[in-house]
Write a structure and sequence with these properties.
four-stranded antiparallel sheet; single chain; alpha/beta; 770 residues; 29 helices
């Protein structure tokens, strides 16, 4: 079990054991619904994700324990049931993996408990027997029934519609993932979205291209028959007399069909690629915009590598499917749409042999849907873990080198790569089955058409002129239909990718346009915490009944041990999180009632580990104030003490800092971030260990500059180093549990003999008081 998101009353987990096991998912849901305090539970056997909603009487840890226990009980119940089915006692039951495989084999693919693999030989056996009966004398009665084309067409159409309808519904159910959006329009409708007209144009061109191809292959046998028989009575009856004239007509028609096929095929290819690019751009922009609007507390639960994979790989998969596979889908539909009337008009007595494979092929293709989409999900999950670990290792390159753990990390990556390869091989095996079955069915239809059509021609019940154009048609249609396997495979990959994209869209966004406006010149900078209690999900409270008043225009220091809630105060003020109880006030107004952009523009926030973009120093300082002048830029850098090292660089302010500021030291990055906040000129500044990486001399210079800069400005300085807050107007000492242990000026606290005195003497190199 791995947590994906844990907030008060709501948890989302990944449970590997549930993935690919619908019976276990249903039993787990049933187990948890009987537990008091559980409001909702949804387990997806496709992705292995479990959504759990519970009331506040349960702590996050208790709810997680209930989930773990429910999975274990459901797993044990499945093992017991499997042992009974196999005629064994509990002591002789097989191991969990084998048992689960056997049990799930009975529950994954239908209520009757038989998998597609066990049904396949029977289906093929019945099909082979039916064909054998039809082509032998014993099947004369069957042939008389099948020779009624409307009856066979109705049976084939009804069976195909039932198969497609069931697969469509199943596809909709598998999309209903825990924690995701409620079921909406089908995947294709959601993918196409507002691009219906472009989709219609591309589909029209694909249909014309397929029409031209089938016309070309229908005319080719007619030309051969024309030459073999020395003329065509049908064309002669239409007024085209003479072999040369008839040959010229057919050849010209074939050339026109070839030209139409090439021209419309080119147009279709361009149209589909353009549509795919538009759809990809649309989804990527909308998804990135949504991610940017997501509340920090919710985005913290998502792995950066996973979000990046969604924005790049998954959205790219959607574009690839539209650009490549949709063209084939339309051509497949066009081929079948032409095949049906052609046989009904020209050779109705053998039409059944062309119609019969359609429902069989459709059923076999969609029958593997659940297994394929589950294996694709597992494969994508393993690839995501591998990519995430590789990315993490590249960022931690120096740490790995210093710890001499290269061999350890190589072994970990090797193991993750092995698991990824195993998942990909399993997916490849499951994906290789449907195309071969489809080829077998298509080849059988072609052979049957030639055999039965040839016998009809020999008996004189079917004219050669009518049979000639039909020889190639089933082969073309079945060739298109044989690609249904790979198209279905790509479709299932696309649906899985679309699920992950849309799951990002379900993350709650911040109320960006709500709240009272706060004009920047009117902000005084008075900050108050009024009996604030806050706890991170699954942890004890970081702040408990904490109260604090920061007067406007004053410099306040906040010190204390690690985990005392110092940084939490800054995050609550910035509305990165919201208090569970109490209020955080700015100028007497609850920050939750203020317009979020105005609130954050009024506060300059510098963290201990600032982020620098892969750009120049000047661009990093100007970030957020993009139109600042050169004089303002240099003044901000001077105030932050950054000008001393910037002037020594060969390119000065035009120096690129590299990814995440890799070309700079920790202290230099902090000074760049401090200059960025100063350039914004906000009425409130929060410095969260913002000078922890600079030396004492540089810090003294920065403090002097900040003292002048901080006049008539509220400054909240969070620090471990007490010298950083020594000159503050007021210092708050945070104790365990986020309680304010002491407060006062530096001189008052040093002489008080409390926690601050002890910390001061330790940092000054003097013995602590007894």
């Amino acid at each position: 079990m791995r947590p994906r998101s844990i907030v008060h009353g709501r948890q989302r987990w990944e449970v590997d054991r549930v993935r690919g096991r619908p019976a276990l998912a249903r039993l787990t849901e049933a187990e948890l619904r009987r537990v008091p305090g559980i409001e909702e539970v949804r387990a997806s056997p496709v992705t292995g994700r479990v959504l759990l909603r519970h009331d506040r009487t349960l702590t996050p840890r208790q709810a997680a324990g209930l989930l773990r226990g429910a999975v274990e009980r459901a797993w044990a119940a499945l093992r017991t049931a499997a042992a009974k089915l196999l005629g064994r006692g509990p002591a002789a039951e097989p191991g969990p993996d084998r048992t689960a495989a056997r049990t799930e084999g009975r529950s994954d693919f239908g209520a009757e408990g038989r998998s597609a693999g066990s049904r396949l030989p029977k289906v093929l056996g019945f099909a082979a027997g039916g064909v054998a009966l039809a082509v032998t004398g014993a099947g004369s009665f069957l042939l008389r029934i099948l020779s009624r084309p409307l009856l066979t067409l109705g049976l084939a159409a009804g069976a195909t519609a039932a198969v497609v309808r069931r697969a469509w519904r199943t596809s909709g159910r598998t999309r209903d993932e825990p924690g995701g959006a409620a079921p909406g329009p089908h995947a294709l409708r959601r993918i196409i979205g507002p691009h219906k007209r472009k989709f219609g144009l591309a589909a029209l061109l694909s249909g014309l291209s397929q029409l031209g191809e089938m016309a070309l292959f229908a005319l080719s046998p007619s030309i051969v028959l024309l030459l073999a028989r020395g003329g065509s009575a049908t064309l002669a009856g239409l007024g085209v007399v003479g072999v040369t004239a008839q040959l010229t007509l057919l050849a010209g028609a074939a050339g026109a069909a070839c030209l139409a096929m090439a021209a419309s095929g080119y147009g279709a290819s361009v149209a589909w690629r353009r549509l795919a690019q538009d759809i990809e751009d649309d989804w990527r922009v909308r998804t990135y915009e949504h991610v940017q609007r997501v509340a920090p507390a919710d985005l913290e639960n998502e792995r950066v590598s996973r979000v990046n994979a969604v924005l790049s790989e998954d959205i790219g998969q959607i574009g690839t499917f539209v650009g490549s596979n949709m063209h084939e889908v339309v051509q497949m539909g066009t081929a079948l749409a032409l095949l049906v009337p052609a046989f009904l008009l020209l050779a109705p007595q053998i039409a059944w042999i062309a119609f019969a494979p359609i429902p069989v092929v459709s059923w076999l293709s969609f029958r593997f849907h659940e297994r394929a989409i589950t294996s694709h999900t597992a494969s994508d999950e393993e690839r995501s873990r591998l990519n995430g670990r590789v990315t993490e290792n590249l960022h931690a390159h120096t740490t790995i080198k210093s710890a001499v753990t290269e061999d350890h990390e190589i072994a970990r990556i090797t193991e993750l790569n092995r698991k990824c390869s195993d998942a990909n091989r399993a997916t490849g095996r499951s994906s290789a089955i449907p195309p071969q079955i489809l080829r077998l069915a298509g080849g059988s239809a072609l052979v049957g058409t030639v055999l039965l059509g040839g016998r009809s021609v020999l008996r004189g019940t079917l004219s050669t002129a009518a049979f000639g154009p039909l020889i190639e048609m089933p082969g073309i249609a079945m060739l298109r239909l044989s690609r249904l396997g790979s198209t279905t495979d790509q479709y299932q990959r696309t649906v899985t990718a679309l699920d992950r994209v849309e799951r990002l869209h379900t993350l709650p966004v911040e109320p960006f346009r709500e709240g009272s406006e706060v004009p920047l010149p009117e902000v005084k900078g008075e900050i108050e915490l009024r009996r604030v209690t806050f706890a991170y999900p699954g942890r004890s409270p970081a702040l408990r009944e904490t109260s604090m008043v920061i007067p406007p225009g004053r410099t306040i220091g906040i010190v204390g041990t690690s985990g005392a809630g110092k940084t939490t105060i800054a995050k609550l003020l910035m509305r990165f999180h919201h208090p569970d109880q109490g209020q955080v006030l700015l100028d007497g107004a609850d920050v939750r009632t203020l317009a979020l952009p105005d609130l954050r523009r009024a506060i300059g926030y510098v963290t201990q580990e600032p982020f620098l973009f892969d750009a120049t120093i000047a661009e990093n300082i100007r970030y957020g104030v993009f139109h600042a002048t050169e004089e303002q830029l240099v003044a901000a850098a001077r105030t932050a003490g950054a000008d001393t090292f910037i002037d020594t660089l060969p390119d000065g302010y035009a120096t690129r800092v590299g990814e995440r500021g890799a070309a700079l030291s920790g202290g230099q990055k902090q000074r760049i971030a401090l200059a960025r906040a100063i350039l914004r000129d906000p009425p409130v500044i929060i410095l969260d260990e913002a000078t922890s990486a600079v030396d004492n001399e540089t810090e003294a210079v920065i403090q002097q500059a900040l003292h002048a800069f901080g006049t008539d400005r509220t400054m909240v300085v969070i620090a471990h180093r007490l010298s950083t807050v020594q000159s503050a107007d007021q210092i708050y000492v945070m104790g365990p549990g986020g309680l304010v242990a002491e407060q006062g000026t530096h001189d008052e606290l040093v002489t008080r003999g409390g926690t601050y005195t002890t910390l001061w003497k330790l940092q000054a190199g003097r013995p602590a008081l007894n």
